[in-house]
């Protein structure tokens, strides 16, 4: 056995030992209630958390293939390795010491912030890398969800699409919208394949939702464009809106998403109802809309 083969074999044994020591709860996996035949995580669970195929991870454990720095970094995070364990893993793989490579946290561009503040009658949000929700205006919170109540690290549009029951109920064609979101992230993954936060997001959702896992494996890609979506809003009922995407010149990784309606249409009336409420109320529940006769917000107060 050559030196490289020996190191691969040792790397595989190290991964197997760390996998056996990590419980599903420690890895952030949902409890299934089923009895496990072996302690720790299964191979497919580690692979999902690291956003790689089960077959590839199996060959890594068997010492049959080398691992890139990006894969090792993803495995180190999936297995919750400390600094010493990361260093040892890197040595076995013949790589530089693995350290999380995190880009600086995005903050909304000042011009976009001012634009959001001026768009009082148009729901709008700013999406950043990985579909993170960077900023929003009050009308977007009234239409979609109260983003301010979501912990900062969880404030990601794709994550909400798959984990928030209210978001699933909001879209009448949830499956098509969610599938498009996955395709958008898949395209971004081609540009930033080593982004640790993106890898962690893919691993998390792959474990939690079989449809995400299926769609991610299909490698479909799309670009943000324009379209029409029907939302089943809990207050104003079904509302069909046009959405558009504007890319920020100062930071192309930030995009303004807006929802609008043709003036004079029922959808426009419903947006006016929500806009009227957000202008005069800071807390509480938006006013209910009587069946068949939406109130005119211009007569409010």
Written description of the protein model:
By secondary structure, the protein is of the alpha+beta class. It has two domains: 3-93, 434 Repressor (Amino-terminal Domain), CATH 1.10.260; 110-286, Beta-Lactamase (2-Layer Sandwich). Helices cover 46% and strands 11% of the residues. The protein has helices spanning 3-21, 43-49, 54-61, 69-78, 83-93, 110-118, 138-143, 157-163, 165-170, 174-191, 196-208, 210-218, 266-280, and strands spanning 124-127, 133-136, 227-233, 237-247, 255-260. It has a five-stranded antiparallel beta sheet with strand order 2-1-5-4-3. A hairpin with a 3-residue loop joins strand 3 and strand 4. The longest helix has 19 residues, at 3-21. It is elongated. The termini are far apart.
List the helices and strands and how they pair.
Layout: H1 3-21, H2 43-49, H3 54-61, H4 69-78, H5 83-93, H6 110-118, E1 124-127, E2 133-136, H7 138-143, H8 157-163, H9 165-170, H10 174-191, H11 196-208, H12 210-218, E3 227-233, E4 237-247, E5 255-260, H13 266-280
Antiparallel strand pairs: 1-2, 1-5, 3-4, 4-5
User: What is the name of the CATH topology of the largest domain?
Assistant: Beta-Lactamase
Q: What summary fits the major beta sheet?
A: 5 strands, antiparallel
Helix and strand content put the structural class at alpha+beta
CATH architecture of the largest domain: 2-Layer Sandwich
Fraction in helix = 40-55%
Low-confidence residue ranges: 283-301
Query: Radius of gyration over alpha carbons?
Result: 23 Å
Number of domains: 2
- Morphology: elongated
Mean pLDDT: 85
Separation, N- and C-terminal Cα atoms: 84 Å
The amount of beta strand, in percent, is 5-15%
Quaternary structure state of the chains depicted: single chain
Strand elements, count: 5
Give the ordered list of helices and strands: HHHHHHEEHHHHHHEEEH
Counted by DSSP, the helix tally is 13
Strand order in space, largest sheet: 2-1-5-4-3
CATH class value of the largest domain? Alpha Beta
Pfam families: HTH_31, MLTR_LBD
GO molecular function: DNA binding
Organism: Saccharothrix australiensis
Protein name: Helix-turn-helix protein
């Amino acid at each position: 056995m050559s030196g490289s083969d020996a190191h691969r074999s040792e790397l595989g044994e190290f991964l197997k030992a760390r996998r056996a020591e990590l419980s599903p709860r420690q890895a952030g996996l949902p409890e299934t209630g089923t009895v496990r035949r072996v302690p720790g995580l299964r191979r497919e669970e580690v692979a999902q958390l690291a956003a790689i195929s089960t077959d590839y991870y199996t060959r890594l454990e068997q010492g049959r293939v080398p691992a890139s720095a990006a894969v090792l970094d993803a495995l180190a995070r999936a297995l919750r390795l400390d600094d010493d364990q990361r260093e040892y893993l890197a040595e076995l793989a013949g790589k530089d010491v693995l350290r999380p490579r995190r880009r600086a946290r995005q903050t909304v561009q000042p011009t976009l912030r001012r634009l959001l503040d001026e768009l009082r009658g148009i729901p709008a949000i700013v999406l950043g890398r990985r579909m993170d929700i960077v900023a929003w205006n009050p009308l977007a919170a009234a239409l979609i969800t109260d983003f301010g109540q979501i912990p900062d690290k969880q404030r990601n549009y794709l994550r909400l699409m798959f984990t928030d029951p209210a978001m699933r109920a909001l879209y009448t064609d949830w499956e098509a919208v969610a599938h498009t979101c996955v395709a958008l992230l898949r395209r971004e993954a081609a540009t930033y394949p080593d982004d640790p936060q993106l890898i962690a997001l893919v691993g998390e959702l792959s474990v939690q939702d079989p449809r995400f896992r299926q769609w991610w494996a299909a490698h479909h890609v799309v670009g943000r464009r324009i379209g029409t979506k029907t939302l089943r809003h809990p207050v104003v009922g079904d509302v069909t809106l046009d959405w558009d995407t504007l890319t920020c010149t100062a930071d192309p990784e930030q995009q303004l998403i807006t929802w609008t309606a043709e003036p004079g249409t029922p959808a426009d009336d419903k947006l006016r109802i929500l806009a009227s409420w957000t202008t005069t109320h800071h807390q509480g529940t938006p006013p209910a809309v009587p069946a068949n006769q939406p109130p005119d917000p211009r007569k409010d107060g």
